[in-house]
Specification:
By secondary structure, the protein is of the alpha+beta class. It folds into five domains: 66 residues, no CATH class; 94 residues, Thrombin, subunit H (Beta Barrel), CATH 2.40.10.10; 101 residues, Trypsin-like serine proteases (Thrombin, subunit H, Beta Barrel); 87 residues, Pdz3 Domain (Roll), CATH 2.30.42.10; 100 residues, Pdz3 Domain. It is 24% helix and 32% strand. The protein is built from 13 helices and 25 strands. The strands form four sheets. Strands 19, 20, 21, 22, 23, 24 and 25 form a seven-stranded antiparallel beta sheet that branches. The protein has a six-stranded antiparallel barrel with strand order 1-2-3-6-5-4. It has a six-stranded antiparallel beta barrel with strand order 7-8-9-12-11-10. β22 and β23 form a beta hairpin. α1 packs across α2. The longest helix is centred in the first third of the chain and has 24 residues. The N terminus is likely disordered.
Length: 495
């Protein structure tokens, strides 16, 4: 009976405290002071203290908040989010391949068959003319790309630009209609704790909306692109959401949903989105007629700041990007950047790590001024650097090796400071770099990998891709070569 009475008292106290809160939010009700006294007497606390605790524990603060809905925002934004269907033809190997009996009749090449392989993702219309942005991994290798609008209409689309390093692709619907589109939000103004919505087509079930908050900013080490600068959110993102929209509370595009951390394949509350400012830069390049996104050249190499470095510089935490190399005559050298300088910000925006600096440079753009705040010899100073255009590739700087040799199937390129910076290699690296290795080629069999640097072949120092071409023409019977792989020297002999 006593417990029942106490439960009743507590319930009354909660109801009374709720009434007090409502009164303080609108207008004072008759008898409120007496009710406050009753609450205080029951709780054995000061009336003001009791009231404050009641207020702190009550959510939402008013009845009006219960009427809030994301529905108007979704109705406005959803027509601009599309489903992307990518189809590719793949050749399926015969199950009898390698069987001596069947090879007697069909030869070494067993007859296979081709089949259609489909990939499903999402996309966002960012311009009324039908410009769509999605992830590169959604459409990579596709022979045909179709998009389906929220109203059920389907259109073929063509690829304007794709960038594997950023993991973005820009599509175009060739139709005279004006399409619903989303405007961009300034993703640099996003803060941890901001509310966001994710719209996409998870698992192919149809357009789906999920809500969450921004969990973190400037995330790196995600492993889906070379630009380690992602928005992290707990809004549910699942397979099929790739390329979909991450919206702010103004219904504007704040990011493109790209990846998740998951052990099950479904959402675990850790999703990542490419910031809208990067998306805008890539879309602008496509709309200007570029077939590739140009990254500016700064002429310097940067490394992560360790805790020991931070302590030596008098910093309270390890943050920023430390300069490890500066190219003579390059933009950084002309601007006065020195080895050992610690970059803290770019154009007033914080730089937490080298990946963040790369992102800031990419969104600043070629030809523009990057104003760096640096710590140099424990003093803060400003460095203004004009960002140069990237390396212009020419046929004589690259070579695809053919024939019967250990490098056959490898695409080699002259390694210069601009290419080294683009590939995140020390700018003073020398030699010839492997850009690509064909699957099943001799180079692949002998373990040659992209980003390997060819230093020496049969006693000859390799400086240009053409050097390898000339050695191959000699058709040597034995091969001795030396590679640099992530700073480790590898020697190999092939007969």
């Amino acid at each position: 009976m006593r417990s029942f009475r106490m439960a009743g008292i507590v319930a009354i106290a909660l109801v009374i405290s709720g009434s007090i809160w409502s009164a303080t939010q609108s207008q004072e009700l008759p008898g409120v002071d007496k009710l406050r006294g009753v609450v205080a007497e029951i709780l054995g606390k000061d009336p003001k203290q009791a009231e404050q605790q009641a207020q702190d524990r009550l959510t939402p603060p008013s009845q009006a908040v219960l009427q809030y809905s994301f529905a108007p925002l979704v109705k406005s934004a959803a027509p601009a989010v599309v489903n992307v269907y990518a189809e590719r033809m793949v050749r399926q190997q015969s199950p009898f391949g390698g069987d001596p009996f069947f090879e007697r009749f069909f030869g070494q090449q067993m007859p296979g068959r081709t089949r259609k392989q489909s990939a499903l993702g999402s996309g966002v219309i960012v311009h009324s003319s039908g410009i769509i942005v999605t992830n590169n991994h959604v459409i990579d290798g596709a022979d045909e790309i179709k998009v389906a609008l929220a109203d059920g209409r389907e259109f073929p689309s063509r690829l304007l630009l794709k960038d594997e390093r950023v993991d973005l692709a820009i599509l175009k619907i060739d139709d005279s209609d004006a399409f619903a589109s989303l405007g961009y939000s300034d993703s640099d103004r996003l803060e941890v704790g901001d509310l966001v919505l994710a719209i996409g087509n998870p698992f192919g079930v149809g357009q789906t909306v999920t809500s969450g908050i921004v969990s973190a900013l400037a995330r790196n080490g995600v492993g889906v692109s070379d630009f380690g600068f992602f928005i992290q959110t707990d809004a549910a993102i699942n397979p099929g959401n790739s390329g979909g929209a991450l919206l702010d509370m103004n219904g504007r595009l704040v990011g493109i949903n790209t990846a998740i951390f998951s052990r099950s394949g479904g959402s675990n509350g850790i999703g990542f989105a490419i910031p809208a400012n990067m998306v805008r830069a890539v879309v602008d390049a496509a709309m200007n007629g570029d077939d590739a996104f140009r990254r500016p050249y700064i002429g310097a190499t940067f490394s992560t700041v360790t805790s020991d470095m931070a302590e030596a510089l008098g910093l309270d935490r390890a943050a920023g990007a430390i300069v490890t190399a500066v190219v003579d005559g390059g933009p950084s050298d002309k601007g006065g950047l020195k080895v050992g300088d610690l970059v803290l910000s770019l154009n007033g925006l914080t730089v937490d790590h080298p990946d963040a600096l790369g992102y800031r440079l990419a969104t600043t753009g070629v030809g523009n001024i990057a104003e760096l705040e640096v710590i140099s010899r424990k003093k803060i100073r400003k460095v203004a650097i004009k960002l140069a255009p990237p390396r212009q590739r020419s046929p004589d700087m690259e070579a695809r090796i053919t024939g019967r040799n250990p490098f056959s199937g490898a695409l080699l390129a002259d390694l210069d400071p601009k290419l080294a910076e683009e590939l995140h290699i020390q700018s003073n690296a020398k030699g010839v770099i492997v850009l690509d290795v064909e699957r099943g080629s001799y180079a692949s069999r002998y373990g040659i990998r992209p980003r390997d640097i060819v230093l020496e072949i049969n006693g000859h120092q390799i400086k240009r891709a053409r050097d390898v071409v000339e050695i191959v023409k000699g058709n040597p019977r034995a091969w001795r070569f030396e590679l640099d792989r992530n700073g480790n020297r590898l020697r190999q002999m092939v007969r």
